[in-house]
Amino acid sequence: MSAQLPGQSAGSSPSPPAPLPERVAAAVLGHPAVARLDGGPFGSIASYLPGRRVVGVRAGEGAAASEPVEVAVVVRWPAGASLPVLAEEIAARVRGVAGERPVDVTVADLVPAPISAAVPEPAGGGPATGPGPAGTPGTRLA
After folding, report:
1. Which one of 69, 96, 109, 134 is CB 3.0 to 4.6 Å from 74, fit for a cystine?
2. Which is nearest to 97 in space by CA: 45, 28, 33?
3. 3-state class of 55 per DSSP?
4. How far from the centroid of its chain's Cα atoms is residue 59's Cα?
5. Which residues contact 38 (CB under 8 A, 6 or more apart)?
6. Averaged pLDDT in 10-residue chunks for the chain of 142 residues
7. What are the angstrom distances between the C-alpha of 9 and each of 4, 81, 91?
8. How many C-beta atoms lie closer than 10 Å to residue 73's C-beta?
9. How many CB atoms lie within 10 A of CB 99?
10. Is residue 6 within 8 Å of 15, Cβ to Cβ?
């Protein structure tokens, strides 16, 4: 008797895994600095699947499995790391689902990251002050 997987009804066979481009897209979108995938100029970075396409991911299977996986992303900035470090983190996520294939990551655009924490008030209780335009003293920094 075979073991039943969670979410699988008795007597049914397990569903096949999602196509590689969809798995790559999910892995990339799981990175906290990635705002969205991007198709690049003219939407040329995409994978075509039956009845749909995955924009921002070009990943072949079968005979095309030796080609690099290409992803294009829009990144929330600042992201807490440099763009080369982010690109390597994203590539590592792609290799986690695509195996040890070459991965090309393109950062197509940057968007402002949401402000997630309030700026702490400086010691002394009042707003920070510092030199203003052309070195004028006492300009409030808010």
Report:
1. 109
2. 28
3. strand
4. 16
5. 45, 55, 56, 72, 73, 74, 106, 108, 109
6. 50 79 97 96 93 94 80 93 96 95 95 69 52 50 46
7. 8, 44, 36
8. 24
9. 10
10. no
